[in-house]
Specification:
By secondary structure, the protein is mainly beta. It has one helix at residues 63-66; strands at residues 4-11, 18-30, 39-49, 54-61, 68-69, 75-76, 80-89, 92-100. It has a four-stranded antiparallel sheet with strand order 3-2-7-8, with no helix packed on it. The protein has a two-stranded antiparallel sheet with strand order 1-4. Strands 5-6 form a two-stranded antiparallel sheet. A hairpin with a 2-residue loop joins β7 (80-89) and β8 (92-100).
């Protein structure tokens, strides 16, 4: 399986140093045998920022990140469409779609 990386730039506009948290969510949009199709928190990064500073949160997206529980209770990366989302909270995310093709 190819390795992917997700980046999320987080600026700090406040006047004091802060520790920002950036979260990574994965949601299956189609395909696969897992149910229910829920949004799952799959990772987070903490960024220590000084006033005016910005930093990138970088997530390595691998098989462990994309795997879901199958009907036989195993873990597998199944073909289908996923939504990868990052943001400071579950209500403030930006996403990108990922299509996993069946093996040929």
């Amino acid at each position: 399986m190819a390795r992917l990386r997700a980046h999320r730039q987080r600026p700090h506009t406040g006047e004091r140093p802060v520790c920002e948290t950036v979260q990574l969510y994965v949601r299956r949009l189609s395909g696969g045998s897992s149910w229910p199709r829920v949004r799952e928190l799959r990772g987070f990064a903490r960024l220590d920022l000084r006033p005016g500073e910005q930093a990138d949160a970088v997530f390595a997206i691998d098989a462990d990140t994309l795997a879901s529980v199958t009907r036989d209770l195993g873990l597998a990366v199944e073909p289908g469409e996923l939504l990868l989302e990052t943001g400071p909270s579950a209500t403030e995310t930006q996403g990108a779609r990922l299509v996993i093709e069946p093996p040929s």
